[in-house]
Amino acid sequence: MSLEECFRSGSPILMEGALGERLKREYSLEPDEYVALAAMVYSKKGEEALYRLWSEYLEAAKQFDMPFLATTPTRRANKERVRESPYDENIILDNVNLLKRLRDDFPAVKMYAGGLMGCAGDAYRADHVLKRQEAREFHGWQAELFGKAGVDFLYAGIMPALEEALGMADAMAETGLPYIISFMLGSDGCLIDKTRLADAMEEIDSSVKRKPLCFMTNCVHPAIIRKNLSWDFNDNAYVRERFRGIQPNTSPLSPDELDGSKTLEGTEPLKLAEEVERLMEKMNITICGGCCGTDARHLKEMARVIKEMARVIKK
């Protein structure tokens, strides 16, 4: 079953939890100055750590009999950064191959391997935002490499600005692969560039050759997501139909407060799952994973909630 077929079926899907923050905290591994986590595949310790973390998340998917989405840690491995680094374009293929190996090692789980992409600038500040055509060309390099590497889908993580998200969507659509656009959201109902969420989604859906599979958000606490979606201009049937996934972090701080924060205030697994449940009472969330502060405990609690909520909805 393809990811599109899986998604259209309405079955709840589990997505990976935190990687970068756990690699640093639990394994004392620092991101590369150029391509961040993408270089982990060239270190035995880094590759083994990534494999262990994904394995924990896959075990959660196995326990709750759910399909699983994993994405390469390549948000910063864009054309500009790779060319400034000691690495070459094979860094994309090498990261994809690690996910494929993991998938082969967990045949009991229906796993989809995704290529993670991100904005050119700071996702928390929406600076250095590329114009649409510029973004299409810039991100097209990475999208094409992911297509050649054989990923199942593409994922644009924490996109803070509509203009660059449009170009990113253009580049992803060109590959023919299913893709997801995930926004960085504040509590004011908007992206970081102050575009209303509903407006951003409608602009992308109406102007790209192939629509995204759905829209999501990541690196935002469920309470902030709920507040964002509660604004009148976002509280409508269109948003409920197209906004279908979250990768929340465990901190209740806003993006402005989190940016540059030295500590990460966390929410315990059960409490985070309760917050996700409150969100699902309002929204048809079918894809759920985790971001900063989450681990396998959080994923298991959230998996339990979204599976139970899906059961209730079907009844």
Proportion in β-strands: 5-15%
Which structural category fits the helices and strands? Answer: alpha/beta
Low-confidence stretches: none
**What is the CATH fold-level name?**
TIM Barrel
- What is the name of the CATH architecture? Alpha-Beta Barrel
Task: Kindly state the number of beta strands.
Answer: 8
Element-level helix/strand string: HEHHEHHEHEHEHEHHEHHEH
Domain Hcy-binding: 1-306
Keywords: Metal-binding, Methyltransferase, Transferase, Zinc
Pfam families: S-methyl_trans
Binding site for Zn(2+): 219, 291-292
Description:
The chain is 47% helix and 12% strand. By secondary structure, it is α/β, with parallel strands linked by helices. It has one domain (3-314): Alpha-Beta Barrel (TIM Barrel). It has an eight-stranded parallel barrel with strand order 1-2-3-4-5-6-7-8, surrounded by five helices. The two termini are 24 Å apart. This is Homocysteine S-methyltransferase. Pfam families: S-methyl_trans. Residues 1-306 form the Hcy-binding domain.
